[in-house]
Amino acid sequence: MAGKKERLAGKSRPLLLRIPSNLLESLKIEAAKDDASVNSFITTVLKKYISWGRYQERLGFMPLHKSMVKTMLEKLTPEEIEEVGKMQKDQTIRDFLLFESGYNLKSFIQWIRLRCRVLGFDLRIKEEFEPDYTIFVMIHHDMGENWSLYYKGMFSAVLQELLPPDEKAYDQIIFETNRTSFAMHIVGLKVDDDMKEIMSVD
Known about the structure:
alpha+beta
């Protein structure tokens, strides 16, 4: 059954749509900007809606310009920014549970992938094997160091929930923040093969 579902997921089917002429012209213009066909552009738009857009209202998201976010963060101290990030722990967990079935690190990583894709941030995930098995996650963004501090607070709080220190699922977590990127190293992590597959795909 699973194999059949996978085959169907990879197939494409023709669909006849009737759309207003002005909408079609707008789609052609936007597709040309991406050097894509109208068909592939529409598919991309629909995929983005299915993976994220349809959940936005339910999750309580609203349009907010990056410049406004930067301005608000500038009013806070680094410690306050990290605390704001930590306060988002429960909401973040509720968010990724909406998209993923598991309450675990794998689901959190999948949520990070989705969020970076929606926000247009570059994401790099890789495995490091020396001296200990480590999962490395780096997010490149254009939001300034305060945004990296926000991520540090949020990620640290979520990981403490998903990987309680007393369970010894890892040796240590190292965070790196700067003006253009946020990175974390989960050192000495004990994961199964399924988790490794998720982590090693860029």
